[in-house]
C-alpha cells in the first residue's frame, strides 16, 4: 500500500511540539511500522539465494551511494566475517564502494554513472550476485550496474525504498522498504537491519 504523500517524519516532528523525547519515541514507532510492513517472503528469497551462492562459491557484490555505500561496506563485512565462521564454508562478498582511488579514477575518466559497472566488468563471473542498495532506486550508477549484471550472467538484487524506482523492476530479487519519497533515514535504518538479520541467519546456518 502506498503511503500518504505527506512526510511522516515532518508530522512526527510537528506532533512532538519541540520535545526530543517524544520525537524519538514517535520516530521509533514509525520505524517499527515500516519494518513490520516488509515482505518477509522477499527477504527469505534473498537469504535462500545467498545460501546457494555460498554453496557454489560465487561472489556477492554490494554497491550504493552515500549512506547506502556505508551499508554496502557493512553488509560485505558481515557476510565475509560474521556469517563465515572459521572452519565453515565462507561467503565470498565484496563492496564496490571501498576503493576510493579506483572509484575516483573511474568517476574522473569515464563518469560517476559507470563506477560500479566497470568494476563488475573486471570482477563479475556468471552466477555472481550484484546487490544494489538505494533508497530512491534510481541512482544511475546502481541502475547501470544491475542492467549489466542482468545482461552478463549475474543475478541482480535490489534493496530499495520510497516507490522502488527503476531498480525494483530491474532486480530478479528485491526487498522494498515502502515509505514516502525523501524518508532516507527509515529506509537506511531498515536496510541495515536487513544486513544484520540476513548475516546472523547465515552465520547460524553455516555448514
- Please mark out the parts with pLDDT under 50 across 5 or more consecutive residues, or reply none: 1-5
Contiguous helical run count: 9
Residues in helix, %: 55-70%
Q: Biggest sheet, strands in spatial order?
A: 2-1-3-4-5
* Major β-sheet profile: 5 strands, parallel
| Residue share in β-strands | 5-15%
Intertermini distance: 39 Å
What class do helices, strands and sheet pairing give?
alpha/beta
CATH homologous superfamily title of the largest domain: Glucose-6-phosphate isomerase like protein, domain 1
Number of strands: 5
Number of separate domains? 2
CATH class of the largest domain: Alpha Beta
Order of helices and strands: HHHEHEHHEHEHEH
CATH topology of the largest domain: Rossmann fold
CATH architecture of the largest domain: 3-Layer(aba) Sandwich
Radius of gyration: 18 Å
Average pLDDT taken over every residue: 95
Which of globular, elongated, flat, extended, rod-shaped describes the shape? globular
Please explain how this structure is put together:
This protein is an alpha/beta fold and 207 residues long. The protein folds into two domains: 1-37; 38-204, 3-Layer(aba) Sandwich (Rossmann fold), CATH 3.40.50. The chain has helices at residues 8-16, 20-36, 40-56, 67-82, 100-110, 115-123, 140-151, 165-170, 184-204, and strands spanning 59-64, 92-95, 129-134, 155-160, 173-176. Strand 4, helix 8 and strand 5 (173-176) form a beta-alpha-beta unit. The longest helix is centred in the last third of the chain and has 21 residues, at 184-204.
Amino acid at each position: 500500500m502506498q503511503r500518504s504523500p505527506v512526510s511522516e517524519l515532518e508530522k512526527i516532528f510537528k506532533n512532538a511540539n519541540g520535545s526530543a523525547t517524544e520525537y524519538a519515541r514517535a520516530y521509533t514507532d514509525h520505524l517499527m511500522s515500516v519494518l513490520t510492513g516488509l515482505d518477509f517472503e522477499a527477504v527469505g528469497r534473498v537469504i535462500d539465494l545467498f545460501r546457494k551462492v555460498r554453496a557454489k562459491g560465487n561472489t556477492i557484490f554490494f554497491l550504493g551511494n552515500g549512506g547506502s555505500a556505508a551499508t554496502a561496506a557493512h553488509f560485505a563485512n558481515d557476510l565475509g566475517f560474521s556469517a563465515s565462521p572459521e572452519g565453515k564454508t565462507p561467503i565470498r562478498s565484496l563492496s564496490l564502494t571501498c576503493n576510493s582511488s579506483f572509484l575516483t579514477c573511474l568517476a574522473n575518466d569515464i563518469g560517476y554513472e559507470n563506477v560500479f559497472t566497470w568494476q563488475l566488468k573486471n570482477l563479475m563471473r556468471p552466477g555472481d550476485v550484484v546487490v544494489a542498495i538505494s533508497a530512491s532506486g534510481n541512482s544511475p550508477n546502481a541502475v547501470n550496474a544491475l542492467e549489466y549484471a542482468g545482461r552478463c550472467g549475474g543475478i541482480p538484487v535490489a534493496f530499495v525504498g520510497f516507490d522502488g524506482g527503476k531498480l525494483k523492476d530491474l532486480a530478479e530479487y528485491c526487498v522494498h522498504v515502502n515509505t514516502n519519497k525523501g524518508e532516507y533515514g527509515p529506509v537506511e535504518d531498515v536496510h541495515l537491519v536487513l544486513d544484520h538479520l540476513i548475516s546472523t541467519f547465515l552465520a547460524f546456518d553455516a555448514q
